[in-house]
Amino acid sequence: MNHIERVRAALARGQSDRVPAGEFELGAGLAAALLGREEPGGFFEEAAARELLGMDLVAVTPKAPLKDEGNECYRDAWGRRLRQQGGLITVQAPAIAVTHEAAGYRLPAADVFDLLPIRRWREETDFFVFAFVDGPFQGTGNLFAFTDFLLAVAGREEAVIDLAAAIVDFNVELARLCIQAGAHAVIIGDDIAYDRGTYIRPALWREIFLPLLRRQVEAIKTLGVPILYHSDGNLQAVLPDLAALSLDGLQGLEPGAGMDIGMVKEQYGGRLCLMGNFDLNLLTTGTPAAIKVAAERLLREVAPGGGYIFSTSGGILSDDLPPENVVALYRAVREYGACYQ
């Protein structure tokens, strides 16, 4: 099977020749180290590093255009003021300074976002290509200082809730453009939780954001592609709600937040493809031998029967990870990924 067939089989809760695997993002510095090069490269170097590791997939987040404001500061299409120092980008000022201004906020046009990376991955490689779009909680929260956003939601501020509905419409359109550009599937990135539970009470999330998420999922499903839902943190309280949506899979399943992937597969594996759960902390601090043991244990637990895609819980391999640990991890995935299918 090729990369695309392998991922498609897992998304359909089926089996393939081996467990499909991959991360959404791979740091340019890490890719260079894996290839034995001194300096970070670009597109072709990342593709070569992914092939070296045996990955099957990539994910692309459409980038908002930036306006240079000097002193390493930029204004993005959302209106956020950003500062870039080296590879680190920080938000200096939110798009909406105070929540009552949400009523006058105007979203950017979806067609100004850069879709060229999606086209390149689709046309110049044989990887399965996911496109990342925000969900209603994350997409709205990104426009405010986060504490202000949470307080506005707790107070059921009408302008903020109306903005969340507009965010859904925007992200459906952005997903349509991503699919048109070549994406095989869509990931809804919607970090609604931290390590002890959801950021807002589950009942409040169900009242405000679940109907909006359902509308977004159903609209994207009409475009004819699979949909994964991503959130970090502990999702136990809302797993039944997510499983009842027309999602094809769930990515994240953070072990450090108490997400027991074996239990999730037992309860929801018939409805959802699962992706993730490998501990990034272990990948950062563990030995290659310990990483191999953990990878084998995870695959033995969740790979049988199909419907699983291997990745770290966060789906991001950053430049600060030890290259030898990353190599050990993906060598173990190749070794055991065929054994437990």
Radius of gyration: 20 Å
Q: How many discrete domains?
A: 1
The CATH class is identified as: Alpha Beta
Give a quick account of the main beta sheet: strands, pairing sense, barrel closure: 7 strands, parallel
What structural category do the secondary elements indicate?
alpha/beta
Structural description of this entry:
- There is one protein chain.
- The protein is an alpha/beta fold and 341 residues long.
- It has one domain (3-64, 97-337): TIM Barrel, CATH 3.20.20.210.
- Helices cover 42% and strands 17% of the residues.
- The chain is built from 13 helices and 15 strands.
- The chain has helices at residues 3-11, 28-34, 43-53, 116-124, 136-141, 146-154, 158-181, 202-221, 239-243, 261-268, 280-285, 288-302, 323-337; strands at 25-26, 57-60, 66-70, 73-76, 81-85, 88-93, 128-134, 185-189, 193-194, 197-198, 227-231, 249-252, 273-276, 308-309, 316-317.
- A seven-stranded parallel β-sheet has the order 2-7-8-11-12-13-14. A four-stranded antiparallel β-sheet has the order 3-4-5-6, with no helix packed on it.
- Strand 3 and strand 4 (73-76) form a beta hairpin.
- Helix 2 crosses helix 3, helix 7 (158-181) runs parallel beside helix 8 and helix 12 (288-302) runs parallel beside helix 13 (323-337).
- The longest helix has 24 residues, at 158-181.
- The chain is globular, with a radius of gyration of 20 Å.
Which key terms come to mind for this protein?
TIM Barrel; UROD/MetE-like_sf; 341 residues; methyltransferase; uroporphyrinogen decarboxylase activity; alpha/beta; 13 helices; 4-stranded antiparallel sheet; transferase; 7-stranded parallel sheet; Methanogen_methyltrans; 15 strands; 42% helix
